[in-house]
Amino acid sequence: MCFCFTGIFAAGYDFNKLSSLAKLRYGDEAHLNILELQQLISQLKTVPEVEKLKKINDFFNQKINYAEDIDLWSQSDYWATPLEAIGREAGDCEDYSIAKYVFLKTLNVPNDKLRLTYVRAEINFDGIRTVRAHMVLSYYPSPQSEPMVLDSLVPEILPASSRKDLTPIFSFNDKGLWIGSSSKPKADAGTHLSKWRDVLTRMQADGIE
């Protein structure tokens, strides 16, 4: 289950450190994936935001295979750094969303356009409908506009109104926390959750600051 309460303030990165750690911890395949990401970031620096969204969304959806935390990390709820997710080539909903958020920020997509969004998702498994906690990344073209949803369940980036399977609970970035679909932040999001502070610290150690 995915619970997140605060946002990332990091936008810098050290790809030399990331690639070295990827090879040391996870081997050649992870090293090549980081180099591929580095090349992609370089190519996307001057393109329109809509293309940045698509390419980053596609990259992480393709590189990370869905896995439950208990199977991957032997913990019921573990928030992986992008390096860990790429290294294992696996993760769950918050891992996709965190990685997309981090690297869209490195591409200078403004923070006020991005929110990590906790939702209730209706998912069909072999014809059986279930409702699960889920995390997506939301992109707001303008402050009052309908968000676009970057998701690991559906590869296409769609407006929120087209995702009837998702019910927003709250969203956040490093400037605040929003409840439901409210346009005004409810509270400061920076001090709510130790797991988020922990993953920020581990990302900084990996070379993302």
SSE arrangement:
Blueprint: H1 15-26, H2 28-44, H3 49-63, E1 65-66, H4 69-72, H5 82-88, E2 90-91, H6 93-106, E3 114-125, E4 128-139, E5 148-150, E6 158-159, E7 166-173, E8 176-179, H7 194-206
Parallel strand pairs: 1-2
Antiparallel strand pairs: 3-4, 3-7, 4-5, 5-6, 7-8
**Beta-sheet strand percentage?**
15-25%
- The residue ranges in which pLDDT falls below 50 over 5 or more consecutive positions are 1-10
- Give me the number of helical elements: 7
What do the pLDDT scores average to?
87
* Run of helices and strands: HHHEHHEHEEEEEEH
Determine Rg (CA atoms, Å). 16 Å
Strands of the biggest beta sheet: in what spatial order? 6-5-4-3-7-8
Number of strands: 8
Please estimate the helix content: 25-40%
* Biggest sheet record: 6 strands, antiparallel
State the shape: globular
In whole angstroms, the N-to-C terminal distance is 26 Å
Structural class: alpha+beta
